[in-house]
Amino acid sequence: MNRGAFFKTIEAAYKKFDKVVSIYLEKYLEELQVKVFISMPVFDMDLMDDLVSAEYELMGDHPEAFLTFEYFPIELTTTEDALHPSAKLIFKR
How many domains does the chain have? Predict the structure, then answer.
């Protein structure tokens, strides 16, 4: 799978969740860091379970990719605080 198609696969896995606001990718050595910003003023365990399930599914479908995932509530974190300047935006609601 080419990079663009793989990025679309990551986007599709998360954009179905209404509370996902944006998704960024950062490359670090061989690792692809997926950074998901969510609207979650109060901790939502059901949402986190769904997001982690999407994460596991991506990792299972693409074992060749070295992926890491982080989730940031937009109420507590700004993109400037959480992202390297080289981060690539792949989805924004």
Answer: 1
